[in-house]
Each structure stands twice: as C-alpha cells, then as structure tokens.
Amino acid sequence: MAGLNQQIWTDVLVQAFRATEEASFLAEIPDESRFVSATRGDNEIIHLVDVGADPEVLINNSTYPIGFSQQTDTDIPIQLDSYKTKATKVTDDEIQYIAYDKIKLVQEKHKNAIMRVKHNKALHALTPQSNKAKTPILTTTGEDDGAGRKKLTLKDILKLKRAFDNQKIPADNRVLVLCSDHYNDLLDDAIGKTAFNGQFSDEVGGLLNARLYGFKVYWYVDAPYITVSSLTKKSFGAVPAAGDFQASVAFYAPDMFRASGMTKNYADEPGTQQQAWFYNVRHNYIVLPRKERAIAAIVSASA
Predict the structure, then answer these.
(1) Where are the domains of the chain?
(2) 114, 283 in Cβ contact below 8 A?
(3) Among 80, 91, 178, 289, who pairs with 284 as Cys (CB 3.0-4.6 Å)?
(4) Alpha-carbon gap, residue 109 to 103, rounded angstroms
(5) Among 251, 214, 208, 203, which residue's Cα sits nearest to residue 26?
(6) pLDDT digits (tens, 9 = 90+) for 243-289
(7) How far apart are the C-alpha atoms of 158 and 166, rounded to whole Å?
C-alpha cells in the first residue's frame, strides 16, 4: 500500500482541491494563502492588514506645504476553519479481492465531502448577516411561484445593481451567485420573454454565459438561507423553517479573500485486531469579506 504515502497523497489532494476551486465562483476571489502562518500544533491563522482610509485627492492645489495624513495599519488575525472527515474503514479482505483501487476511491470521496462543505460555508460567509446600508438584503418582486414565494425578476437584479452603484462599488469584478430557485426563475422568464433568451442554458463549472447588469453570474445549488420576516441570515447548518428561503449572493470580489492552509492525510495500517485500513483527511481553509461591506443578497419574498 505504498500509495498511502503521506506526501504523495497530500500533493494529489491539494491539486484536486485547487482544480475544483478554480472552476467555481471562488476563483474570482483573491487567494491570500501566502499569508497563512502556523500557531500551536496544526492551528493556522491568516494576518490581514487594515491599511486605513484612502488618501485625500487635491484638485488644482495652490496651498503649500501640501500637508499629509498618517496611515495606521492594523493587524487582523483570523483563524482558519479546520475541516476533518470521519475515518473510513477498508478491510484487508476488501483490498485483496476487489478489482479496483478502493483506497483511491475512498480518498476521492473524502475530498468531495470536504469540498462540498467548505464551499457551502464560503458562500454562507459572503452573505450579509442582516439588512444594513452597506450589506443590503433585497427581496424579490415577481409573481407567486405557487409554493409560497415570489419569483426573481430581472428588475430585482437591476435593483441589486443600483444598491452597489449607490455605494460607489467599482463596476468591475462584481459577482452574483444565483441560488437554484432564482436561477430557475430566470430560465422560466427568459423563454421567449426577454433578450436573454437562450443565454442561460450552458453552464461550465457553475458559470453562466451571460452577464447581468455588470455582474458575472454563477449558479450554486446549496445556497444559504435567510429568514424573510427579519431579513437575517440563518446560522450555518441550521435547519430551514417556514418563512426561510435560499438567497442569491452578490459581492465585489477584490474586497473578499480566501486562504488555504494545511492539508493532511491520516492512515492507520492494519493491525492484529482490526486487520483494516482507516483513512481520513484534514484541511484548513477560510473565506470571508475583508470588511463588512460590498456584499449583498436577494431572497424570495413570501407570496
């Protein structure tokens, strides 16, 4: 079982994580992994720097000395989340009598499990906690879908654009991640009704082939939930209740960050009692906004 060599399998796993990530909405976000440092044991943190306010710009200045302002940098340490899978047991008998590499299949399943959960948590972290001036949560205005919610319309996305415009968020690098309900609403609305007819039919890695009002658009199936009555985000992993709907999430990519830390494989070789391999994975990762700004969400209003 030389294939279980720690370094070989870890390298393969890291490459697989990166390949999947670069095909998702997270590829739009700056990767700050180079700033990750270890603390005690396997704990890792990333140090972000708050560089303070932008410098003042003078026009046609005629007063000297011109003056100066002090820039005070602030260190913001953030601990990476630690994702660990429960171990999978593979017996010696299974390895001896099956015709495929079960260890490799097990590793792939562990990688996919971590990838799914960390991407879910990433989109949840990019979703506003509540409706505020710099983190607006908008509601849909379309017709009743027959299941108790109002559909998303193109006018709702235009309203999102206006919310970003009003905050003077740069036009480049705006990203919109549609939840399934809203993506399906646009598909239904686009059939023979708007100039976007046919533009939403070809997805590559969740990326749609049309921009909407300046937003680069992705589709993600496991979007976060928002309680419509209070316009507050449900905690990660919370079971949705009546009045909770999945939300579409928008962000200005340069104001977000992502960072990967340690990835490690663990394997117990067969012993005298179990006569089986045990395998699991640990992966450190984080996605967050740099500040509480430049993020927004659209949630379906109750019909």
Answers:
(1) 1-43+80-303
(2) yes
(3) 80
(4) 10
(5) 251
(6) 999 999 999 999 999 999 988 888 888 888 888 888 899 999 999 99
(7) 12
More confident position, 90 or 252: 252
- DSSP code per residue over 104-142: HHHHHHHHHHHHHHHHHHHHHHTS-SB--SSS-EEE--S
Residues in the chain: 303
Rounded CA separation 285/281 (Å):
13
Return the number of other C-beta atoms located less than 10 Å from residue 96's C-beta: 7
Q: Out of 3.30.1450, 1.20.58, 2.60.40, 3.90.1690, which CATH number does the structure's domain 1-43+80-303 have?
A: 3.90.1690
Residue 94: what pLDDT? 78
> pLDDT by residue (tens digit) across 200-221?
656 666 788 778 899 999 999 9
Helices 6-21 & 102-125 angle (0-180, nearest 10): 40
